[in-house]
Design brief:
Layout lengths: L7 E3 L5 E3 L3 E2 L7 H12 L4 E3 L7 H10 L8 E6 L1 H5 L3 H12 L4 E6 L7 H13 L3 E7 L3 H9 L7 E5 L7 H10 L2 E5 L11 H10 L3 H11 L3 E2 L6 H6 L10 H8 L17
Parallel strand pairs: 3-4, 4-5, 5-6, 6-7, 7-8, 8-9, 9-10
Antiparallel strand pairs: 1-2
Helix pairs in contact: 1-2, 2-4, 8-9
The structure holds nicotinamide-adenine-dinucleotide (NAD).
């Protein structure tokens, strides 16, 4: 059972990755992201998820440096953006991220989206970055089974992580099973359905039963599926609330009820049909 904010999973190359992370999408660079990341680190989060396209890597890096926590105790993820894939400048984009973050390495570097016609070549560049030692692990995001098959087919490094939209309305059991079989760790984005989870009556009922908030139920449900979760908030109370998910367990019957909410419904873009 995952029972502490310090608990981690071992990625397919042996790297430790915390089950809980802190997402910073839509948090402004500068004071806002610095305050949020510092607070998250102060209360025990040890994994931060940013991306080139979030335009807040500078603030994330600054907050990490000023936190007083040794860099090696923090798991830092960033992602290569789609335009850099199209322009075939993966290595340059990676160097720029390191510069903005002011760090020697990232723990995890992800391909943000499977850009059609480019992601296979991107993966070959990702492998070079991994071999340079400046990304302790490499992975992908928003990859469907067929995208994963394409890169597994002619590559040496199996992605360590696939970060996907995941919540009770979008379970994708086949993708989860495929990743498990291939030893690719699934990580959830938009675990709170970008807020839509709060109007789901069943989640409300289960929250009342466990005396927890709806957010805590949704996040605990992620963990019990062995899916890493990275909720986002800039509000200190919510950042704390989202970390208090280690002192209870959702019974299997309630897990099943939550699983049955699955409608294959996305709140974000479709990985097979996006135009950015
Ligand atoms: P989320 O599901 O975490 O929801 C965030 C929303 O819920 C925000 O509006 C926030 O203010 C609110 N919220 C957070 N905690 C709450 C609480 N306890 N009570 C009430 N409201 C609360 O959505 P997200 O930000 O889209 O996803 C989380 C993270 O995943 C992002 O920050 C980012 O790091 C990552 N992400 C990755 C991708 C990708 O393509 N790889 C896409 C989207 C997000």
């Amino acid at each position: 059972m995952i029972s502490s904010i310090k608990d981690y999973t071992l990625l397919n190359n042996g790297l430790k990755m915390p089950w809980l992370g802190f997402g910073v999408f839509k948090i402004n660079d500068g004071q806002e992201v610095e305050d949020a990341v510092k607070y998250a680190l102060e209360i025990g989060y040890r994994s931060i998820d940013t991306a080139t396209v979030y335009r807040n890597e500078r603030g994330v890096g600054k907050a990490i440096r000023e936190s007083g926590i040794p860099r090696e105790d923090i798991f830092l993820t960033t992602k290569v953006w789609n335009d850099d894939q199209r322009e075939k400048r993966i290595m340059a984009a990676f160097e720029e991220s390191l510069e903005r973050l002011k760090t020697e390495y990232v723990d995890l570097y992800l391909v943000h989206w499977p850009v059609k016609g480019f992601y296979q070549e991107t993966w070959q560049e990702m492998e070079k970055i991994y071999q340079s030692g400046r990304a302790k692990a490499i992975g992908v995001s928003n990859f469907q089974i067929h995208h994963l098959e394409d890169i597994l087919h002619d590559s040496q490094v199996v992605p360590a992580v696939n970060q996907i939209e995941f919540h009770p309305r979008l379970v994708q059991p086949e993708l989860l099973k495929f990743c498990q079989e291939q030893k690719i760790q699934t990580e959830a984005w938009s675990p709170l359905m970008q807020g839509e989870i709060f109007s789901e009556p069943l989640v409300k009922r289960i929250a009342e039963k466990y005396q927890k908030t709806l957010a805590q139920i949704a996040l605990r449900w992620n963990l019990q599926h062995e899916v890493i979760t990275i909720p986002k908030s800039a509000n200190p109370n919510r950042i704390a609330e989202n970390s208090q998910i280690f002192d209870f367990e959702i019974a299997q019957e309630d897990m099943n009820l939550l699983d049955a909410l699955d409608q294959g419904k996305r709140v974000g873009p479709d990985p097979d049909n996006f135009n950015f």
